[in-house]
Amino acid sequence: MKIIDTKGSILTGDNHPSLKIGDKIYVVDDRKSTWDKIQQAQADPTTKDANMVALELALGKKAVKEIMEADGGISFEGFQNLTFYVMAAITGQDYEILKKEAMSKN
């Protein structure tokens, strides 16, 4: 029998992805529990802004506020791109492919 030692990396959280925006680096919470909360928010029709909820869950409210207010405010396109970057970081998918798939559904 072959045993693969993960050295605890599955459970310790030392391998969270990060996003570099300008000179700052933001750690993305890619835990399954966070992903489940994002999925719940997106499925709930009473959620006012599921994308904002997703960003706040993945990056934290303070980081999202900082990003949203940088350089006088984020553009709508920048907000969309940020959402795709965060989802790509959480799921391990390629940003370009994820964005293309999402855009083709619209």
Question: Layout of SSEs?
Answer:
Blueprint: H1 9-12, E1 18-21, E2 24-27, H2 32-43, H3 50-59, H4 61-69, H5 76-91, H6 95-105
Antiparallel strand pairs: 1-2
How would you characterize this protein structure?
This protein is mainly alpha-helical and 106 residues long. 58% of the residues lie in helices and 8% in strands. It has 6 helices and 2 strands, in the order αββααααα. It has helices at residues 9-12, 32-43, 50-59, 61-69, 76-91, 95-105, and strands spanning 18-21, 24-27. It has a two-stranded antiparallel sheet with strand order 1-2. β1 and β2 (24-27) form a beta hairpin. α3 crosses α5 (76-91). The longest helix is centred in the C-terminal third of the chain and has 16 residues, at 76-91. The model has no long low-confidence stretch (mean pLDDT 88).
Cα separation of the termini: 48 Å
Oligomer kind: single chain
Largest sheet: 2 strands, antiparallel
* Beta-strand content: 5-15%
Shape estimate: globular
Q: Order of strands in the sheet with the most strands? A: 1-2
H/I helix tally: 6
Uncertain segments: none
Classify the helix fraction into a percent range: 55-70%
How many DSSP E strands?
2
Using only CA atoms, what is the Rg?
Answer: 15 Å
Q: What structural class is derived from the secondary structure elements?
A: mainly alpha
- What value does the average pLDDT take? 88
- Provide the succession of SSEs: HEEHHHHH
